[in-house]
Amino acid sequence: MMPQGNLFVAAPLKMDRVAELRSLLASMNVDPGMANPQNPIVPFGQFGRLHFARFVILEDQSLDDIHTAYGLPRRDYPFMLAFIADFDGDADDFRAELARHAGDGLRRIFSFCEGFSPDADLARWMKRREKRAATAYVNWVGRTVQRIREDDALRRALQAYLHNNAAVFALKDSRDVHRSLRAFVEVEKAAGRIKLSEEEPTPFGWQLRKVVHLVGVPLILLALAPVLVLYLPLFIFQLRSREKSDMEIAPRPDPKHEAALAQLEDYDVTNQFSVMGGIKPGLFRRWTLSFLLWLVNYTARHVYIRGHLARVSTIHFARWVFINGKNRLVFASNYDGSLESYMEDFINKAGWGLNLVFSNGISYPTTNWLVLEGSKNEQKFKYCLRRHQLSTQVWYNAHPGLSAFDLKRSALIRDGIERDDMTDAGFRQWVALF
Amino acid sequence: MNMASSVDYDDVQGPVRFGYPRMTEACYFLVKVKNASATRAWLASAPITSAEKLEQPPKAALQVAFTREGLEALGVPQNVIAGFSSEFISGMAVDENRSRRLGDTGANSPSNWQWGAANNFPHAVVMLFAEPGLLDEWKQSIKEKSWQEAFEQMDCLPTSDIGGREPFGFVDGLSQPEIDWEQTRKVPINGNEREYSNVVSLGEFLLGYPNEYGRYTDRPLLGPVDRGSSELPFAEDQPSNKDLGRNGTYLVMRQLAQDVRGFWQFLDKATNSNPEERYRLGSYMVGRVLADGSPLVPLSPLAIPGVGAARDGLTKNMFTFDSDVEGTHCPYGAHIRRANPRNADIPGAPKGLISTLIRILGFGNKNLRDDLIASTRFHRLIRRGREYGPKLTPEEALQPAPENDPERGLHFFAINSNIQRQFEFVQSAWLMGTKFDGLTEESDPLIGNRSPVAGCPCTGTFSIPQSGAVRRRIMDVPQFITVRGGAYFFLPGMSALRYLSRLGD
Fold first, then answer.
1. Are B27 and B139 in contact (CB under 8 A)?
2. A264-301, pLDDT tens digit by residue?
3. Of A346, B34, B66, B434, which has the highest C-beta tally within 10 A?
């Protein structure tokens, strides 16, 4: 099994050249924010292991909040350019591939960043500016771009075959349908029209790190348990007193900002989402957030690896990344459906989880006991997220038109075609996938 | 925390509570404000019908609702306008991004609309309802006084009574949410509703009351000394302010032309002209039987809260789709399954703490589609649509169209207090969504626009799951419904109407 990797490169921009960068990035798109897969600057479509990628200018709309809410001086962080990618395999390999096939274009883009010299080793330059995700989520660990394409092609071929022989298939029971389709696939495979590749071996290093992590985190927690238990009453006191005094800042978002964001959405069934904000001042929130993201990351690595993150099954990839020395947090995801439906899922299906993490951010709607209320304050929550949302200048999706559910269905179809030992109920469920 | 007070029906416009079934005649004037003070004078004396139940029910009714432009024309200051929702402020047709989400592209594009797009935008809709034979007289009486001076009449949309059915021939308007007028409903702020209920908080349909989240939907509030605020009730959640929204709501209006002949002729072709199969396929597309509107799924043995009070409720609405996880009774893509999937907040109705926790963490689902859709209670609409055009039976519809065949269709009206979360969500995520409930390559069989989406060029299929066999798939379903016009209106409460009528003082 080939695991998925991600990278998040972020570098400060030359502030006098931001407008120029925006127009360069816009030139890579077919629709607002939607990358042309064959654009000459970074031809995303040529990277066979790349799932999603984006360029986003990290331009925080909420820098005043720390002053408004806590009376602390506003810090004017420079705008940053972030390049975010989700791919199959190892980051070093992917970086090298980027440098090989899109070196000139990336140099052109990164030349808008402070301290970029044209003769720098691109892969090394990127690596040095990478921020490791505090939490990274992958919808289905091990599902490669190649596998997605093969599964989808298989599903389409089977759909077409069913359609062309509808009268025959209408009379068959599930087991018979499976048998016929299996025979069809064998013929098509032999003729080279359908390709179902063998799974790649799981890299040993990744496997080992995963096991160490699987066991290590609980061991660390166990070792820390006495301290954590002793600290708990103080923690509760600290949390509750902050929850009572932290200010929420959730005005209606500026209509212009809203329109700029909406302009980038709903061309595909999948959308991008990028938000950033400041973390509440003081060590308490910073440590709480670090600890929680460390735990969430554990679940994303070992528990939520098969199609859903808690109850939300529409996210393909997501990550939470600290920047500026843990003063700020970026969240970037790829999800199915409209933003309104994403927000509704956030509130109704995983509101507690959103509260757990984002309530440590400045301005978030007031929570109780870390998980209650917060996002359930529907309108304020939506305003707050929209206000913190960033325009993603360029976004690439290797499998447009395919929702996470589509990917799962096609994978199940493929799994089923390769076996003949299912129960009657199994055959029925398999046939119902079409 | 419940500060809610009881509803003053006298302050609410009638359609929020009543569909006026006895008033079978209706027409809608789309008007522009020609003269603000004459309009205010007309408003001050217009006999607008409230939601109060009278001993002698009225034989005719008059309602009025305004677009943002209309409120501006009446002199509502910008800082007050800014308190309305952003969908209402920007409007249904102006924003391309909204059009993309609502499916208003291609033939549905606002550039083709007869009304509601940039150049033919109404300021208000004046709705008249009357019992048979009384509409003309009612029209005359309404149009007296300052009407001519006040309004420039853009259009007068007629309606027709074709016997409680929509133009394709199906019984319409069967399912309506049961509004919790008495505000006895306790919504779980942090928890989950285990079972689907048809009782929905008043605040989902009227501004100024707690909604399904237990919160007050944003609406314009005025300071106690602001001009005209003495006409307005206090805001329940902010008692120092006056509430312009209270007892008002948003009215979504869309004129949908229905290709009745195209619909039945397509079904006829798809079923090789077998009448029984033709009606069955139509029923699959709707989710209800053509003959009497009975649902295709079996009725629920357990009572569903809020179902049964209304006419036909027990036989037509006592169901959820939990009994049909395979979609073999009612296809996943059937219109009524898309428009109201009838889900609770959490799948599987877990009872114990542990099983609830397992569900909350995203585990324990038995079926592939178990938790794809949840929490329909946040996406309910009151529908008050009326048909237009002459009746055409499904049999007559098979005949080729004569010359000058009149247009048939529906004036779709929906009442909701949060356009984005209610109407727009249902329209975009559920009806237009090509990925609704795990489907792919299809949109709503009745109202889908069949526009291609990226990576998915065909969206015109319709799947009918078969028990233990391959699903039946209808290919190349054409577009049957074309949007002809539409707008978002504010349907003010009576005090808000008084506020509007006195803005010139």
1. yes
2. 999 999 999 999 999 999 999 999 999 999 999 999 99
3. B66
* Residues A127 and A166 both lie in one domain: no
Nearest CA in chain B to A407: B438
ipTM: 0.95
What is the pTM (predicted TM-score) of this model? 0.96
What are the average pLDDT values for consecutive 10-residue runs of chain B, which has 505 residues?
A: 71 97 97 96 95 94 98 97 96 93 96 92 98 96 90 95 94 93 92 94 97 97 92 95 97 98 98 97 98 95 86 87 96 98 93 94 93 96 97 96 96 98 97 95 95 87 95 96 98 98 88
DSSP string, A31-48: ETTEE-TT-SSS-GGG-T
In chain A, how long is the greatest CA-to-CA distance?
A: 74
A12: closest CA of chain B, how far (Å): 31
B223/A228 Cα distance (integer angstroms): 50
Q: Which domain holds residue A307?
A: 4-143+202-397
Whether residue A166 sits in one domain with residue A134: no
Q: Is B468 within 8 Å of A173 when comparing Cβ atoms?
A: yes
Q: Does residue A347 share a domain with residue A261?
A: yes
- Are residues A191 and A301 located together in one domain of the fold? no
Segment A240-244 long-range contacts (CB within 8 Å, at least 24 positions apart): A240/A369, A242/A280, A242/A284, A242/A285, A243/A359, A243/A366, A243/A367, A243/A368, A243/A369, A243/A370
Cβ atoms B82, B455 nearer than 8 A: no
Residue A251 and residue A228 share a domain = yes
Q: Which residues of A touch B368 (CB under 8 A)?
A: 409, 412, 429, 433
Closest CA to A80 of A63, A110, A57: A57
